[in-house]
């Protein structure tokens, strides 16, 4: 009872403090809110919407079940998750956070994975997408395309390490039969069976895909705006500076510059803001900046973790294993960055100009910067048109149900 009351008091105090801060600093709150909104409707919404809609269609038409049967001999023995985990992993890497959580929850709702398998799967399918790592962080913040290679390797290899560790999660709770049989015939049979079981007409499947995807993106936008404001208010109230005092002690133990402590705290709440602030710190070794940014990219920030928590609440999966996995991922990514720095970056990549890097990594023009520039110019139009379509489809659905 005492613990419950204490929890209620803490939540109430936080809410009251937030409300008072919003009233006390309306201009700063509005600016932070606008910044979060701009990022969402210019980049996040238009870049994630196609992935979400296509994924919903693939699930509805049975393609994911087909992929799951094919990948079962790979995913089950390595990560102790069903073959459909391969689809979730690929979509998570391609589209970025929180796509891995969304598709994991979708698989759980489809009863294609168990609760424990879902908790394992979401732990290593949460990642930043290549567009953000290369285009926004490496080139946009550091103006260093070669640095993106270090970030990407550390990030994705770190996630594999997390998957290998989290395979032991719930070991005593489940017993799986590991299948090593690769059968295209069985995969096609599963594809056909899933399609036959789907009783919704094509129009409803497409409409459901649009509605589900946009509702998720609206939730993501709300969290982005909220944490952008919270991050700004914490800075104004000097709470960030207070927490940084403890972070400085930890950084000093690892010989990391204390100047990175405040940007690091900001990054714990919103990794984009933190990564940008870290790139702007002067008179600090690039290796130290890279290590801290790698940790933040892997940790994801409380904004993304809140988004994942909201998604996991739609199923019966627990949040704690995911949070533990984020810490593992952060430490793995930071460690891999340190290991790769001298042999890969200093000896091979540091002297590279953008012209000497292979064409697929020349980021000022192709492909990542081009995509970002396109989204910045046309993203708002895509977002508005998509929201109008969503309103029309949703209104029509409500009218037919009445």
Would you write up a description of this structure?
This is Sporulation integral membrane protein YlbJ. The chain crosses the membrane at residues 47-71, 121-142, 205-227, 233-251, 290-312, 319-341, 371-395. InterPro entries: Gate_dom, Spore_IM_YlbJ. Keywords: Membrane, Transmembrane, Transmembrane helix. The model is unreliable at 354-365 (pLDDT under 50). This protein starts with a helix and ends with a helix. It has 402 residues and is mainly alpha-helical. α10 runs antiparallel to α15. The chain has one domain. It is 78% helix and 0% strand.
- Assembly annotation: single chain
Radius of gyration: 22 Å
Determine the N-to-C terminus distance: 45 Å
The description of the largest β-sheet is: none
Q: What is the general shape?
A: globular
Count of domain modules: 1
Rounded average pLDDT: 83
| Model regions low in confidence, pLDDT < 50 over at least 5 residues | 354-365
Approximate strand percentage: under 5%
What is the N-to-C succession of helices and strands?
HHHHHHHHHHHHHHHHH
The SS-based structural class is: mainly alpha
Record field, number of beta strands: 0
Helix content: over 70%
How many H/I helical runs?
A: 17
Break the fold down into its secondary structure elements and pairings.
Layout (H helix, E strand, L loop, with lengths): L1 H23 L1 H35 L2 H17 L4 H12 L3 H11 L5 H10 L5 H12 L3 H22 L17 H14 L4 H35 L2 H15 L7 H9 L1 H9 L6 H14 L1 H12 L7 H30 L18 H34 L1
Helix pairs in contact: 2-10, 2-17, 3-4, 3-9, 4-5, 5-6, 6-8, 6-16, 7-8, 7-17, 8-14, 8-16, 10-15, 10-17, 11-12, 12-13, 13-14, 14-16
């Amino acid at each position: 009872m005492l613990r419950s009351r204490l929890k209620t008091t803490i939540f109430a105090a936080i809410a009251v403090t937030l409300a008072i801060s919003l009233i006390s600093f309306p201009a700063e709150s509005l600016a932070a809110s606008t910044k979060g909104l701009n990022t969402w409707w210019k980049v996040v919404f238009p870049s994630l919407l196609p992935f979400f809609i296509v994924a919903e269609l693939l699930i509805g038409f049975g393609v994911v079940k087909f992929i799951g049967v094919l990948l079962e001999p790979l995913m089950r023995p390595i990560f102790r998750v069903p073959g459909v985990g391969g689809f979730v992993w690929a979509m998570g890497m391609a589209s970025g956070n929180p796509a891995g959580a969304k598709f994991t929850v979708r698989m759980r709702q489809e009863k294609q994975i168990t609760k424990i398998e879902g908790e394992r799967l979401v732990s290593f399918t949460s990642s930043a997408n290549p567009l953000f790592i290369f285009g926004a962080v490496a080139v946009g913040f550091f103006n260093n395309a070669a640095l993106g290679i270090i970030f990407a390797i550390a990030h994705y290899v770190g996630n594999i390490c997390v998957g290998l560790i989290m395979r032991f999660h719930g070991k005593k709770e489940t017993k799986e039969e590991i299948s090593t049989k690769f059968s295209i015939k069985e995969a096609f049979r599963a594809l056909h069976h899933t399609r036959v079981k789907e009783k919704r007409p094509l129009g409803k499947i497409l409409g459901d895909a649009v509605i589900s995807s946009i509702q998720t993106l609206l939730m993501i936008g709300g969290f982005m705006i909220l944490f952008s404001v919270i991050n700004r208010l914490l800075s104004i109230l000097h709470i960030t500076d207070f927490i940084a005092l403890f972070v400085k002690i930890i950084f000093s133990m690892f010989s990391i510059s204390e100047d990175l402590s405040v940007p690091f705290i900001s990054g714990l709440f919103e990794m984009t803001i933190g990564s940008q602030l870290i790139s702007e710190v002067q008179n600090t070794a690039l290796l130290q900046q890279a290590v801290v940014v790698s940790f933040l990219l892997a940790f994801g920030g409380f904004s993304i973790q809140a988004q994942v928590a909201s998604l996991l609440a739609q199923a019966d999966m627990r949040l704690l294993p995911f949070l533990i996995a984020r810490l593992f991922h952060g430490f793995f990514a930071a460690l891999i960055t340190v290991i790769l720095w001298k042999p890969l970056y200093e000896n091979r990549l540091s002297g590279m100009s953008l012209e000497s890097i292979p064409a697929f990594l020349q980021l000022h023009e192709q492909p990542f910067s081009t995509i970002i520039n396109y989204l910045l110019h046309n993203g708002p139009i895509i977002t508005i048109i998509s929201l109008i379509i969503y309103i029309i489809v949703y209104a029509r659905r409500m009218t037919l149900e009445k």
